[in-house]
Fold:
Amino acid sequence: MSEHLRVEISPQQSVTAIVYGGARTGRGGVTLILGHGAGAGQTSDFIVDFAGGLAVRGIDVVTFNFPYSEQGRRISDPNDRLEACWRAVIKAVRRQMKPNALAIGGKSMGGRIASQVAAGGIGGLAGLVFLGYPLHPPGRPERLRAEHLADIKVPMLFVQGSRDAFGTPDELRPIVAPLHPAAEVHVGRRRRPFVQSSKRRRYQPRGYVPRNPRPYSGMAA
Structure:
């Protein structure tokens, strides 16, 4: 069983977070918080596998549920509640883990909300990582979700599918090209490389079982 940690958003609401302790050899010196996408919570195969894969490479990873996912609801919370959850998780990680360097990001919606929080003034970040950034709704390229990216003053990495319906690398590049510090777009080999598939084999790195991360004791908001 994974150790579930509670993060308080308000006196009436809290969510679960899981810490994947990085391997003690080859430490990366950074902690990465990952938010899940709109369609699945932090225990989805992708989030668990990705967090586990980074942990074996020496990176501490924290995942968490947004309130709607925590409560088993399918419809996501309003934008302000998603941002409030992100801020609470960042505060909890900084208070209890005291990371040397902290990066944030996530899959699709989780990454987009992270970028809004960063643009809104969360300081002291080492960078942002987007696993399939939802640049626009499918079939609506005129509805860009990118204006706030210019307000982020740390490096950003976009890992984007070559034919992602939410925004292709070719659509992203001219938007991120003028940003400072420089942002990097890495092209995935699949159309949308971060969509879960129940038929694929789950990631099982040698010496590490993603469903059982090394617990980090005592984290609370």
DSSP finds five helices and eight strands in the chain. The domain at 5-188 is CATH 3.40.50.1820 (Rossmann fold).
